[in-house]
Write a structure and sequence with these properties.
The protein contains 5 helices and 6 strands, in the order βαβαβαβββαα. It has 199 residues and is an alpha/beta fold.
C-alpha cells in the first residue's frame, strides 16, 4: 500500500553532486530538508544489481538503515538503441575507474562509429526509490527520449548531458537552463510520478 512521504528530513542516498543539486531543486520547494549521503559521510554501497530499480533500492536501503530517516535514491543512466541499450545500468562506469564521463561519452561515440550506426536515438532512464527506516519501499521510473550528438556541447548538467538532445529541441541537456531541463528530464518524469503517489 502506498504511503505518504511527509515533508521533513530526506536523505539523498548519493555522492553525485549533480544529482544532489537536482534532487534539492525538486524536493526543497515542497518543504523537505535534503541531506546527501556525502554530507553525512556515509559509505557508498556496492551496486550489484542489473536493473536501475535494484541499484536504487540498494542505495536507499543503506542510507535509511544508517540514518533512521526516509532515504531517496536515484539510479539513472543512458540507453543507446543502436548499442542494444548499453551503457544502461553501467553508465557511470562505462569508461572504467576513476569515473570519467568525457571518456564514457567518447566511448559511446566510437562504438556508434564502429558499427556505422545511422540510428542515434537514446533515452535517459531514472529510477527513484524511497525507503523508510521500517523497510517500506516505493519505486518510480521515468524516461526522457532524444538523440545523441557529437562533439559534446554545453557547460551545465552532468554525466551524458552534453551529448543528449531531448526530443523536440536542438540544444543538449547541458545547454539548457536547469529549470528547462527539470521540465523534461527523466528525473523530473520519475519525480512527477513519485509526487502524484506519495505527496
Amino acid at each position: 500500500m502506498t504511503r505518504t512521504l511527509t515533508p521533513g528530513r530526506l536523505i539523498a542516498a548519493t555522492h553525485n553532486k549533480g544529482k544532489v543539486k537536482e534532487l534539492k531543486d525538486l524536493f526543497e520547494p515542497l518543504g523537505f530538508e535534503v541531506v546527501s549521503a556525502a554530507e553525512l559521510d556515509l559509505p557508498e554501497p556496492e551496486e550489484t544489481e542489473f536493473t536501475f530499480s535494484g541499484n536504487a533500492l540498494i542505495k536507499a536501503r543503506a542510507a535509511a538503515m544508517a540514518t533512521g530517516a526516509p532515504a531517496l535514491s536515484d539510479d539513472s543512466g543512458i540507453a543507446v538503441k543502436a548499442l542494444g541499450g548499453m551503457p544502461g545500468v553501467n553508465t557511470a562506469d562505462w569508461a572504467g575507474h576513476p569515473r570519467d564521463f568525457y571518456k564514457a561519452m567518447e566511448k559511446v561515440e566510437n562504438e556508434l562509429n564502429a558499427i556505422d550506426a545511422e540510428d542515434r536515438s537514446a533515452k535517459f532512464v531514472c529510477c527513484l526509490a524511497v525507503v523508510w527506516p521500517d523497510g517500506h519501499e516505493e519505486v518510480f521510473e521515468g524516461e526522457s527520449h532524444g538523440t545523441l550528438t557529437w562533439p559534446p556541447r554545453g557547460e551545465m548538467g552532468f554525466g551524458f548531458d552534453p551529448v543528449f538532445v531531448p526530443a523536440g529541441r536542438t540544444e543538449t541537456f547541458a545547454e539548457l537552463q536547469p529549470e528547462e531541463k527539470h521540465a523534461m528530464s527523466h528525473r523530473a518524469d520519475a519525480f512527477h510520478k513519485l509526487k502524484a503517489a506519495l505527496l
